[in-house]
Structure formats: C-alpha cells, structure tokens
C-alpha cells in the first residue's frame, strides 16, 4: 500500500495541483486510488476535482465528525467517485474548527476515562483503519492545508510518507535544507517514522535550471526523478475547468502541444517512481 | 527521517485491547518504549486542565473547571484558618450556595424555583441546536459565522447602554475565559434576562414604570 501527503513548508507551491496530477496518473496505472482533502480552503482539491460535496452543511456527516468521534454515518458514504478514475473524501467547512473540536473531543474522552486512547493527531489514521479503508485502496493521497496544525499532523500520521513540491528558487532550495529538521520534528511529534518519497522542483522557468535544481535536491539524498516546468496555461486551465491535467489536455485542447505532453509524461514517470519507492 | 518510504501506517490490524497499535512497530524500528508513548498521552490532558481558560468554551466542563479554580482561590485566602483542605473547600462551597440562595430569596421568591426547573415553566425554550451538554457538536462549533441561524431584530438603545456594551462584552469574555462576539453576548444576555424577569421589572420600575394596582 502506498500512502503519502503532499507537503510543502510554504503555501502555494503546487501541493494540490501536483497532487491531483499524481492521483490521476496512479489511477491510470490501474491502481485503486483514494484522495483525502484535509484543506478547509475553498481552493482545495475538492474544488479542483469539481466534487459537489455539502461542504457548508453543518448538519451533514463529514470527515470532521468522524475525527471527533461524532459520526452520523459510515465513512464510505462520504467518499465520492470523481470523473478521473479515483475517489475523493472531500473537504468540509468544519475543518476550520478542527483544533477546537479535537480539544473538546479529547476532554470528553478524558471524562469518560478514555483519554489515553484518544490521540488528536492520530485520529485520521484510526478512523480510516476502523473503517477498513486501507483494504480497499492501493494508494491514499492526502492534501493538507498550507499551515502546520492538526490537519497536517493527522495527514502525516495517516500516511507517514511525503511528496514535496519545491519552489525552484533560492528560497525554495533553502527549504530543502531545512527539510530534514522539519521532518524530524514531525517524527518526534507523531512518534512514527516519516519518509520522503520524492521532492519535486515545481514551476521551473528555464530548461537549463532544471538539472541544477534536481542535482541540489538529489545531493541532499532525496529521490527527485523529475522537475516540472512552469506550465501556467496547462495548470491554470485545470483550475479554470476544474479537472486534472491529462483530462484537461484530452478534453479542452483541440491539438496536442508537445511541451504539455512532455509534462504529462513526467508526471506519469514521477507517479511510477513514487509507486516503486513506496513498494507497490 | 527516511529518504524513501516511511513506516506503514496501517501495518497491523488494530488489536482490540491495545490503544496504540504502532507502538510495537516503533519499538522495533526506533527503540521507543511504551512508557514514552504513554507519557505523552498523559501529559496532554493535564496540560489542558492546567490552563482551563485557554480553550474555554461555553460548556459545562469549563464551568466546572472555572468553578473549581475559583474555589481554589478562595480556599487559598482562607486556608490558614481551616484545618483541612477538604473541609475548607466544602465549607466554602456550601457558603457560596447559601449566599446565592439567600440572595435569590431576598430579591425574589420565584427565582430559586426557576433555576431548578428551567425547562418546565421557563419563558424561553432550550436552544434548538446542540449545546455543550448534548451528545452532538455544540452550535458554536458547527455554525459558519456568528449570524448563521439568527434573525436580525432591531433594538433601540439609549447611548448610555450602547456605551456600556463594549465593556460588558469584555467583562463576559474575561469571565468566560475566551473571546466572544457582541452578537453572542447580546443573545445570551437577552436569554438570561428571560430567566430573570424580576431583574428586568426592577429596571423598568427604576425608569419610572408604575404598577397599576
Ligand atoms: N508547474 C507549474 N507551472 C505553473 N503554475 C503552477 C505550477 N504548479 C502549480 N501552479 C499554479 O500555482 C498555483 C498554486 O498551486 P496549488 O494551489 O496547487 O498550491 P498549494 O501548495 O496547494 O497551495 P496551498 O498551500 O494554498 O494549498 C495554482 O494556480 C497552480 O495553477
Ligand atoms: Mg492546496
């Protein structure tokens, strides 16, 4: 089983965009794939995949109710089938209050004398496991919000592996240097071994820079099979049309463009490499 | 950290009796012990208990926490005169109760009964949404904004009351231990007044309303 969280220390580096592209590629490889959206923002994976979930119906069952042990139904009933060959457990506005809600659930568990069994950062893993979700999928990918907090910790605890889009700038490269420390911090907090499946320089401007960034990342010991070039037209198109990149090229491009096909091939290669490193 | 795949989060089916299925796995791989895991788990709730106001919300747990915190403070002041902590606390609490009761009795005879059986002859119903005492998620957590489910009504207030509102909200927030919006305080105040008709009558009399008989 392959599980990972798309993660980056900075926001807007392409977690959601690259995540959607990888999800599509895993599914195209014939794998059973589940995406989980832990980002409460409107511009999250749920939006990109155009899944019409009742995100602002506070009475409806949703992921958060399960995390705080107040479900209204089974988790399977929350899973949507996307048009892109994989499933999605969508985001919900209650995620905005996740921290408070987990604290409260912790207190309730304490009152019942079950406080030791309630780990607010390990809820998602528990919920998925209790529902038998891991048995139903080959791949689970979680899209977290940009900020550190219970969403990210639950995502990382449930996946224990990361795919890290890196901004191809001096600052982005600097963040690669800080990565080891950051992951160590997560490991300590979550008491689990965290692995980096791949770092992905994303949005590289010039071809000549590509190799340089890849070298830098590889020198630090992270798997980095590909760098993704700056492809605004393709990726903005995905956000506009609310779909994944291969789907976009297929349905919204009248002619194939070589550079876009090249990017799709790279994504496919990246997905394949991640599957390998992840032991599939 | 590992460069490559992390540990398998779903490695073992969850054993019924063991709360931490991964502990063994971690132990093997990282030499971590059960003790470590348990310690972290035990620390967290204690930490929260230690500072009840930081996450305070309008729920009963918090009320209880605040009350016992108050109790402790009053106890500290009177500790030197009492023999044991237990009796001091007991005495203190019964004194408090007595004080509350006599206050109520002196001001209004019905008030005591009102607090005892709120739902039976109260003017206002229990809130329709889940509260802190219910099994569900309390309304303040599930609403998306402070105006959700609320109807706007116009209030006509004189300046001296409007001027006092901010201070009132601050005082309530302080006591509650968490910031609360004016909208919430207003509704809570109005609801509270519905349980305290006599106070409202007193106000009106002070303004000059007179009984017809
Ligand atoms: N390789 C690329 N070339 C051009 N634009 C890109 C590329 N990758 C991502 N983008 C664009 O960058 C923007 C941010 O991407 P995305 O929302 O995926 O980032 P994120 O890390 O998920 O953000 P957040 O931290 O807010 O969740 C999007 O508009 C996306 O189209
Ligand atoms: Mg995102």
Structure description:
The complex is a heterodimer of chains A (280) and B (213). Chain A has 280 residues and is α/β, with parallel strands linked by helices. Chain A has one domain (2-277): P-loop containing nucleotide triphosphate hydrolases (Rossmann fold, 3-Layer(aba) Sandwich). Helices cover 47% and strands 14% of the residues of chain A. Chain A contains 12 helices and 8 strands. In chain A, strand 6, helix 8 (170-190) and strand 7 form a beta-alpha-beta unit. In chain A, helix 10 packs across helix 11 (245-252). The longest helix of chain A is centred in the middle third of the chain and has 21 residues, at 170-190. Chain A is globular, with a radius of gyration of 18 Å. The termini of chain A are close together. Chain B is an all-alpha fold and 213 residues long. Among the domains of chain B are: 57-111; 124-194, no CATH class. In chain B, 58% of the residues lie in helices and 1% in strands. Chain B contains 10 helices and 1 strand. In chain B, helix 3 (60-78) packs across helix 4. Chain B is elongated. The chains are: A alpha/beta (280), B mainly alpha (213). The interface between A and B is large, with 53 and 41 residues. The site of magnesium ion has 5 residues of chain A, from helix 1.
